[in-house]
Design a protein that fits this description.
The structure is a homodimer. The first copy, chain A, has about 350 residues and is of the alpha/beta class. Chain A folds into three domains: about 15-60, 434 Repressor (Amino-terminal Domain) (Orthogonal Bundle); about 70-170 and about 300-325, Response regulator (Rossmann fold), CATH 3.40.50.2300; about 170-300, 3-Layer(aba) Sandwich (Rossmann fold), CATH 3.40.50.2300. The first copy, chain A, is built from twelve helices and twelve strands. Chain A has a six-stranded parallel β-sheet, sandwiched between helices. In chain A, helix 7 links the parallel strand 3 and strand 4 (about 155). The longest helix of chain A is centred in the N-terminal third of the chain and has 16 residues, at about 85-100. The radius of gyration of chain A is 25 Å and the shape is elongated. The first copy, chain A, starts with 17 loop residues before the first helix and ends in a 10-residue tail after the last strand. Chains A and B meet through helix 4, helix 5, strand 2, helix 11 and helix 12 of A and helix 4, helix 5, strand 2, helix 11 and helix 12 of B.
């Protein structure tokens, strides 16, 4: 793979060894190794002496011999399913911080679907990665099995259990139920659900929503297929509100869709939110709090999701499943009666 | 660093060798190596036979011996300065795709400032990374020098030249001049600049903006310090418009600030954009195109920036500087006279 960079600067430069650093610092070679290993105890004075010697000699510690010996690299592959949704980037921010705390490095994988994951993870395993954290739901049993058989643990967010995969999920079903309560309590009588495409998180949100509506004696809601993007939300709202039956309350699969719906209602139909239509989103991305939207939504606890992933990777038996609660954030797109 | 994961599943599993795969596939060991190296020529039939044998034996190719031999890993460190700005995440998307095309892997570094970069890159160099691409501007000569002396090439986006660092930049000065033209042509007479903090890109935009205003006989614009976030833009607008002299045209250092300004003008002062105040942003993040904003802005060609970085890393002499043009996108926040 090194052919891709044809002009390696400094490739021929001789590397000073840890023994030379030890000699200059007046310590043993094993002390130098300890200074450059995570978590090893070294006194600040000794560490300082070694660092100065290393700097003077331009010593570059080498992780590779230890990786070859132990088969463990300190590298975790983090998979995201695109960068269009601030949900993914916020997760990436949190998981990056959580891995850094443990001095683990991140290899980043961006893939449109879990179909490609098989090849990509196969390639990454050449580096002896210690695990995979996937912000993208994984449906493919083949991918999960391949990782498993290679001894690489995997944790996926908001995913079905496939093989021995560990999962960390927002309590999507409970949130769906709570969304139904918010709309019914606020007086909505003609409710719609704007759905995402094939995803475990979306299915759970919908299930919880339908169940609670039914429990509360409401008729089955209209369903529109909106996908996960602003543009899809906008288009779905245009189609829905061009029809005969206009809902007065909408639960959207995520905030991007909800914001697209709001813009469509205002710009295309001159409707007021929440005066004419009340809207509830999901994720609490930063834009949901912008003054132009002030969207009522559910805050996914990204920090807890990210930490959950890192913890499960480190310590949990295969097949462990963790659920993280999420929090209703009431803003201006619902009429907030005393509850 | 492997201590951080305390319970490595499958760590004790014996690994089948490439020789065993070769025997099962009926080919030589060097053919197996070629199948698992990027860019090597192998017939589809042979590749297929080797892949099936590898799958049957659960063989995991190992990149490490070759890295030890060549000192080159096929890994590029990609540095971002936070995930709050869709500019960074869009860059990350493009650079990830460009590196994947060359079969290079991405180690992700998120850091608030280039001060921390020294330690982080020191750690990454243990893996013999082949280069660093930084979406964050690098000011520290110390960081640039350290990488240089380690033989690790670095490319930074919208950054000053420091040491032998290569840079790829949007033509920020030309864009600043064009922003001045847009506002003056649209009839603005009391113009303001909402600035970001200490950054090369921001300084260049401001320089081009001031120069063109002066060339066109306009007085020096008001200057407000806004930072780079939505919240900072909102707050800066509240402060500016609470004062005596209200501008009728504003050029903002980026889109997040511009959107914050728009929301503040509408919500806090009941002002119309572009009726009362015209606004120009920078970056063309997805939200700039949302119907609630329709922001006139400059589109940074992220794909060209990302490809420029990957190309310079591969082939350019140290100190190379590339400039990428950007494109004015006229939407609804400026009054568009015939030009």
């Amino acid at each position: 793979m090194s052919r891709a960079l044809s002009n390696p600067p400094g490739a021929a430069r001789a590397q000073p060894s840890s023994t030379e650093v030890a000699r200059l610092a007046g310590v043993s070679q094993s002390t130098v190794s300890r200074v450059f290993s995570a978590g090893a105890a070294v006194s600040p004075a000794v560490r300082d002496r070694v660092m100065k010697a290393a700097e003077a000699l331009n010593y570059r510690p080498n992780a590779l011999p230890a990786i070859l010996q132990t088969g463990r690299s300190g590298i975790i592959a983090v998979v995201v399913g695109g960068f269009y949704n601030p949900f993914f980037t916020e997760f990436l921010r949190c998981v990056t911080a959580a891995l850094r705390e443990r001095r683990l490095e991140i290899m980043l994988v961006d893939t449109a679907s879990d179909d490609n994951l098989n090849d990509i993870v196969g390639e990454l395993s050449r580096y002896r990665i210690d695990g995979v954290i996937s912000a993208m739901a994984i449906h493919s049993t083949r991918v999960a099995k391949k990782l498993e058989s290679a001894g690489i643990p995997i944790v996926a967010v908001n995913s079905k259990r496939v093989g021995g995969m560990r999962t960390v999920s927002t309590d999507n079903r409970a949130a769906g139920g709570a969304a139904a309560d918010v709309l019914v309590d606020a007086g909505c009588r003609d409710i719609a659900y704007f759905a995402g495409r094939d995803s475990q998180a979306q299915a759970e949100r919908e299930r919880g929503f339908l169940k609670r509506l039914s429990d509360r004696g409401m008729p089955e809601p209209q369903r529109a297929l909106a996908g996960f993007t602003y543009e899809e939300g906008y288009a779905a709202a245009v189609e829905c509100f061009s029809g005969r039956s206009r809902p007065d309350g909408i639960f959207c699969v995520n905030d991007l869709v909800a914001i697209g719906v709001m813009d469509a209602l205002r710009k295309e139909f001159g409707l007021d939110v929440p005066g004419d239509v009340q809207i509830v989103g999901f994720d609490d991305i930063p834009m949901a709090g912008w003054r132009g939207y002030e969207l009522t939504t559910f805050h996914q606890d990204m920090d807890a999701l990210a930490r959950g992933c890192v913890d499960l990777l480190a310590d949990a038996p295969a097949d462990t499943r963790t659920t993280v609660p999420c929090r209703l954030v009431v803003r201006e797109t619902t009429r907030n009666r005393a509850r």
